[in-house]
Amino acid sequence: MVLLVSSVTVQAFTGTYGINYGRIANNILSPDEVVTLLRAAKIKNVRLYDFDHNVIKAFSGTGLELVVGLPNENLRDVSANADHAMDWVKDNVQAYLPGTQIRGIAIGNEVLGGSDEFSGFLLGAVKNVHNALDKLKLSHVVQITTAHSQAVFDDSFPPSSCVFKDNVVQYMKPLLEFFSQIGSPFCLNAYPFLAYMYNKDQIDINYALFLPTEGADDPNTKLHYDNLLDAQIDAAYAALENAGFGKMEVIITETGWASHGDENEAAATASNARTYNYNLRKRLAKMKGTPLRPKNVVKAYVFAIFNENMKPGATSERNFGLFKPDGSISYDIGFHGFESSSAESSLPPLKV
């Protein structure tokens, strides 16, 4: 396979704050109403998990910047057939440019680190989609990424000891090699909420919520961490450095906190969700890096716009939204919803 590698690096993320637009629900606003909601909130960066044409059309002419998704179930076909990759890019990306500002394509989601059902198709899909973009002269406009879960890592504490799992390395190394050639970042879905839920005995909830705390020290680097998200990001940087990709940028493609959960999910409360998401906005507005990479400004897409009532799994899975299905706010972190909400705020106004 001949690889056409563009010499121009494209940035899919402008600013530091974005949001995920999940749609596993039967009661949420129409795409046009979502655009109105996001513009009112001044959220410019939006990630989709698919390539629904009604959604892509709704963002045309809005100034909002989209990352569209190639779902996991499409990877096999796009990996096996370069013509199919070209058709996919023409039909779902090129056809909507420049009206809709599609800035990126997320190839699969959390493919590595779980079952290996799609692992063998990821790199082929990435290369075929990149080559299609290159042939269409779009590789300087549209960035290719794939988001990983924490499941790709071994030993993420202390951050400096983090490495990729043995069973992930065979897929991860060639993927990182290609991403380093085309200038793509390492995308991580990082949830202090989940880390705290699984390790309540070891983690202070204030550390997970960006609240005042003793924090944690990395004995190897002597760096001090005052919040868990920074530690999770630096663990990813350490794993990349260990694998030979120390210059690659880490971007958070999902993070959030559930506002409601099952009996065994006591941390999933509206108060905690509001605190996390409010403090996350404040953290991102500072345009600061992490202790290990102080010059790499942290960028994150929050999960998610809506509570999604048809998501399977624990109750928390259906309660990550900053907004309720009707567009009113789930709780107040400084965004205005469509109508007055019962969510009251004791938080000071946020200056971003």
Automatic annotation (TrEMBL):
Q: Does the keyword Hydrolase apply?
A: yes
The record's Pfam families line, in alphabetical order, gives: Glyco_hydro_17 (PF00332)
Enzyme class of the recorded protein, top EC level: hydrolase
Alphabetized UniProt keyword annotations? Glycosidase, Hydrolase
Organism domain of life: Eukaryota
Q: Which reaction does it catalyse?
A: Hydrolysis of (1->3)-beta-D-glucosidic linkages in (1->3)-beta-D-glucans
User: What are the EC numbers?
Assistant: 3.2.1.39
Q: Looking at the keywords, is Hydrolase present?
A: yes
The family database entries (Gene3D superfamilies) matched by this protein are listed as:
Glycosidases
Identify the PANTHER family for this entry: GLUCAN ENDO-1,3-BETA-GLUCOSIDASE BG1-RELATED-RELATED
Family as reported in the entry's similarity comment = Belongs to the glycosyl hydrolase 17 family.
Q: What is this protein called?
A: glucan endo-1,3-beta-D-glucosidase
